[in-house]
Amino acid sequence: MKKLRQIAFGYSTQCNIRCDHCVAADSDESPNSKMPFAKAKAIIEEMAGCNVTGISFTAGEPLLFFKEINHLIRLCRKHGIYSRVVTNGHWAGTRQRSDKMISELIQSGLSQLRISCSRWHQKNINRENIVSAVSSCKKYGLDYFISFVTDFSNQDDAFEQFLRDSSFKFFPEPLIYSGRAKGFNRSRVFTDFPPNLCAMNPYLSPELDMFACCDAGTHFTETGFFYLGNHKDHTIDELFQKKEKRILYYLIGTMGLTNMASYIGLKASEIVKYKKCQLCENLFNSAENLRLLENSVKSGLINWTR
Ligand code: SF4
Ligand code: SF4
Fold first, then answer.
1. Which of 106, 157, 217, 265 is at 20 to 30 A from 208, Cα to Cα?
2. Residue 18 and residue 163 in one domain
């Protein structure tokens, strides 16, 4: 049976706001690369031919390029591909504008809207925009959810209460300490010994580089662990196959990072101090740890199960 494939599609890294925690930006400079529209259309056609069943339009703010994204969504619908747009909700300043946007997206066949919300986003976007966007989704029957980015500190309690009081569908997402958030103070998180499994959706950048992880993976520059290659040298199918064949990627989603860290000698008392992406960086953005894991993957590591 063929594998079902999903991908985060980075049409452009441009954004109309500047969040202090943005993972898409490496520095003070705002990123502004963009995929040529004709290339994006051809890639979606190619993806349809190699079993891609879900595309999430992300990176910067996709709806800055509303016409093009709408066209790409229609292409997804034509091929039966589930489509999602990740947005900061800048377009929902009034109910009328929000209704217009959502009704057009749903006519094009959008499957789901993911609206970002956090104390960083909301320095730039009025939280009433979130209210309008959700109301329009409900009015036109578009599936939505709110991605509530948090560092799990009590500074976010008021935001969470707002989402709860509004009866919105929301899911807390851990802040990723990469990009602009790299230097943030890390709040302590109190949990027991979580396995730290990660589903790992791949990411295609506007420059047509593909990575095995759509979040912090692009920042593992010491080892390039998540880099799969560029579409100019490989087909989309080949790039997916590289992701699917690497045993270490498979183990991130099945064995989990905690067991891998323990296997190569990190003490349990150390492991619990890491957040998931940090632990991942410790394992795979270190040449020494990566070598240990690569060398043992087919012998000890893969059998390190209960
Ligand atoms: S809205 Fe998203 S892409 Fe834009 S600056 Fe904020 S985190 Fe980055
Ligand atoms: S844990 Fe690793 S694979 Fe998962 S999102 Fe973080 S960096 Fe990517």
1. 106
2. yes
* 155 plus 270 within the same structural domain: no
Ligand 2 close to Cβ of residue 63 (< 6 A): no
Does the Cβ of 216 fall within 6 Å of ligand 2? yes
- Give me the domain span that covers residue 261: 249-296
Domain boundary among 187, 211, 227: 187
Centroid of ligand 2 to alpha carbon of 102 (angstroms): 31
Within a domain: 200: no
| Cα–Cα dist 264/84, whole Å | 38
Per DSSP, helices labelled H in the chain are: 37-48, 66-78, 95-108, 127-140, 157-165, 236-245, 247-254, 257-263, 268-271, 276-284, 287-296
Residue 227 lies in a domain: no
Mutate to test the pocket of ligand 2, among 215, 251, 293 (most ligand atoms within 8 A of CB): 215
Digit-coded pLDDT (tens) for 240-283: 999 999 999 999 999 999 999 999 999 999 999 898 999 999 99
Mean pLDDT of the 197-201 span: 92
Q: Which ligand is nearest to the CA of 173?
A: 2
